[in-house]
Design goal:
Chain lengths: 148, 207
């Protein structure tokens, strides 16, 4: 499967990204990466915020590649698109996807279940992903980075 | 399997009738990891029965050619014997009849030394599950969520259910319980099926 296949399946739409848009997505991710380290917040919230940072980051990579995910199964697609955009390894993608499920479950079925340990792992993953995606955009779509 | 665990109830009764407790647990371990070899202590831990019973079972199974025994240095290993004439049949029989609990136990074996207690809870244990219910697993140990997700990855496909692991380091587990953490308190008071350790280990952990 390639992103072109995904487009044909109707999972993505074509999209022309601007450097402004990438900068905005990164700014939101950076704000979340800072907020998720607020130690007074519950572990559920810290995981949620770090997850959002990762999602914005993955969205930036997908936009840079020329696509946007449609509404249905949006988070799932954006996460799995990392396999095709930055060539993320299977372990990272399945871990992030498992955090997606955990976040859903913690909101509806088992409120308060997330441990500090899990929140920390999500934060670490989001930080790493933010670095990886910026590096990938710099190498593959340098025109989309406004600065430097 | 715990009597109140209705998951695949009929199938489990089949395997409980065909195989005794020890044989069932031992076969479940070998056939859910056909490419791996295990040493005695790992098998004992996974089977949750006495050392003597496991040793006798391993002898019978290897004498019959169902499993192979190999020796590397000081350590003796056992694995499923793919040359056994009924290997495929046995594998399919075990997969179809041994419960989710046994499969999850087998999947956690590589991390067993780092885990104090792990148990299945939620609808699968209460018996009110549906086809979409997740397998909720609480793990208390010196392992990361990432390691547990990796260990359970294959089992997720085998049991054809999503597994929802929740991982607490022992220290955090204790301090949150001491602070009357709602989720943990509720979970500890709900029906459980132990994958690693037992009620006694759990009590010790909380002390």
């Amino acid at each position: 499967m390639t992103l072109q296949n995904w487009l044909n399946n109707g999972w993505l739409t074509e999209h022309r990204a601007s450097s402004q848009e990438i900068a905005t997505l990164f700014a939101v991710a950076d704000r979340d990466l800072s907020d998720c380290r607020t130690s007074s917040l519950s572990s559920d919230w810290r995981l949620n915020i770090a997850y959002n940072a990762a999602l914005q980051t993955a969205t930036a990579a997908l936009a840079a590649a020329g696509y946007r995910a449609v509404r249905g199964a949006h988070h799932y697609r954006v996460i799995h698109s990392l396999t095709h955009t930055i060539k993320a390894d299977v372990g990272l993608v399945s871990l992030l996807d498992q955090f997606r499920k955990k976040r859903n479950i913690s909101e509806y079925d088992h409120v308060g279940m997330i441990s500090d340990q899990e929140a920390k792992e999500m934060v670490d993953l989001a930080i790493q992903l933010r670095k990886d995606v910026e590096k990938w955009i710099r190498e593959n779509h340098p025109d989309l980075l406004a600065d430097k | 399997m715990a009597p109140n665990m209705s998951a695949k109830n009929t199938n489990e009764r089949l395997s409980a009738t065909l195989f005794g407790k020890t044989r069932r647990s031992v076969l479940a371990l070998f056939y859910s990891h056909v490419d791996e070899s295990f040493y005695l202590r790992q098998i004992v831990r996974s089977a949750g029965v006495g050392m003597g019973a496991v040793q006798r079972e391993l002898k019978r199974l290897s004498d019959a050619g169902i499993i192979i025994k190999t020796v590397h240095g000081q350590q003796v290993y056992y694995k499923a014997n793919p040359e056994c004439p009924i290997y495929d049949d046995l594998k399919s029989l075990v997969m179809k009849t041994v419960g989710i609990g046994e499969i999850l136990k087998g999947a956690l074996v590589p991390l067993a030394d780092l885990i104090h207690v792990a148990f299945l809870f939620g609808s699968l244990v209460r018996g009110d599950e549906n086809s979409l219910s997740d397998a909720d697993v609480l793990v208390v140990g010196d392992v990361t969520f990432s390691e547990v997700v990796t260990a359970l990855g294959q089992a997720q496909e085998t049991i054809r259910r999503e597994i929802n692991p929740i991982v607490y380091p022992p220290k955090e587990f204790r301090s949150k319980l001491a602070a009357d953490h709602h989720f943990l308190k509720t979970t500890l008071n709900s029906p459980k099926f132990f994958l690693i350790g037992d009620e006694h280990d759990l009590a010790k952990l909380v002390e």
